[in-house]
């Protein structure tokens, strides 16, 4: 495509190379003038007198748009000028009529934050930055796990799964490192995405940006004058963030997959999968939730099959949103005992985690010693693996080095008053306490 054609495409789609274009007028926001008037009225009601700069910062809209809305509010008798503020900008406050209008607006929708983006704009943006549009190669996968002891063939299962953007089922007995590796997969999420503060659906703002999930990237110019007048850059109603990774476990309930509504504040909140869009959603400890696994699987069948999800607002309004999520299901249970074939066939990858080989276990033991500034005693570690583990029939699991060394350090702090180098006695004591019913192959610990 030549340069002129590319420019024409940007104009047609309303999207610059860095994201949706910054709107310069009310019409370009995709929002109704009355909606923006109510939004400004709610902010003035909450904060009192505000100047153009504060209103621009509070709504993520340019000064030209704020002036257009304030002009409408003045004509309606809802705001009045209260002098001049920062950089000579006019200050505005609500009239009695404006305060009454703001209360009516709050009754309809309690959201009073940054201006939302229309649902249609959000859908286009999610598709433009889809996981399937970015590739993850073998070199990147192995480099990201260079500091992790994991079999290369296991990485060559995980890599294609994440590259494809399809769902994956990670399973195996407890302690085999499933959760640890699943969370570390977020290292491989490439590039950045634009996340809206909120999405407007049928006149209701659905809060999307979550600081607990989304990690913003530093803006190049965030000065008040830039926010007010600058026309370059992407629409500031979006925040540029790292691709999100949402991790949930036994606390997950079915209602967390639907729009959350707070009746006290009258604010709608996006469900976990919507906050994870263009990124990864890890459901850890699958089968430990306060619901049957099949309830969860039935909820995911349509999104996994069709690439979109259906949500409902508090007023019963249904709407469709993209489902662009790398779904990772991690469980200690047998997948065949959790899900039926209809669901399992929608899971592109089933990856089993097994106990470690001897060399892998010793490698993790050495890493844990280095992390805690301890000397790696190869002879002592070999006794643990070749004698104690073998005699007790205990499989070599990735969690054991960290746990056993931690317990041994607890013992040394108790006996010596400080952490010291691992000893046979301390490790024997740790083994006896950690494996309780198995006991110490050498007899009772000291």
Automatic annotation (TrEMBL):
Region (Disordered): 1-23
Domain AAA+ ATPase: 164-353
Positions with biased composition (Polar residues): 1-16
Record-given protein name: AAA+ ATPase domain-containing protein
Gene3D superfamilies: P-loop containing nucleotide triphosphate hydrolases (3.40.50.300)
